[in-house]
Design a protein that fits this description.
Length: 177
């Protein structure tokens, strides 16, 4: 009986952890969704007007109690290595106060992870011509890597031939003695 109760408790804690982790992950915002958030949040609008659109934008659930809105918007500027978050607070039943919740510098690991997301987002926003150009650039990079690998293979083959010739000459010298 105790084992069954303990198993149910452990299962409940694990489930609660998974649900909490899923709630803390951010939802990527498209350009249209970011524009909608900008129209609702004055502080966010002023910041984006001054600093330009971010490389990546996310919406995060706020687990805080009132007066905070249900979510916050986090902007990531990779070239400035900056993360900045905005939210709204409710007063008298309306979300009237818009403010910056926090700002922090991004680590190298953060930037590396966000660059992949930004590249994917940029590719999805391209039209057919832009996608073709991006594919051509990737093909050029792959071709240069293949060229570098071919040069390295030629150098290695030359060294192997030199070693084989040296071994052959030393073998013939040893036979003459």
């Amino acid at each position: 009986m105790r084992r069954g109760v303990m198993a149910w408790m452990v299962g409940a804690f694990l489930l609660a952890g998974v649900v909490g982790a899923a709630a803390s992950e951010g939802q990527l915002l498209s350009d249209g969704e970011l524009d909608a958030e900008i129209s609702r949040n004055g502080a966010l609008a002023a910041y984006v007007t001054r600093n330009g659109f971010p490389d990546v934008a996310e919406r995060h659930f706020l687990s805080d109690r009132p007066p905070w809105d249900k979510h916050e918007v986090t902007l990531y500027y990779l070239d400035r290595r900056k993360e900045i978050s905005f939210a709204r607070a409710w007063i008298l039943g309306r979300p009237t106060i818009a403010l910056e919740r926090f700002e922090r510098p991004l680590t190298d690991a953060d930037v590396a992870a966000l660059e992949q997301i930004a590249r994917r987002r940029m590719r999805s926003n391209l039209g057919p011509a832009g996608k073709a150009e991006a594919a051509a650039r990737r093909a050029e990079v792959a071709a240069s890597h293949i060229g570098d690998a071919a040069e390295a293979a030629e150098l290695a083959a030359g060294r192997a031939e030199a070693v084989a010739a040296k071994m052959e000459s030393s073998f013939h010298r040893a036979l003459r003695k």
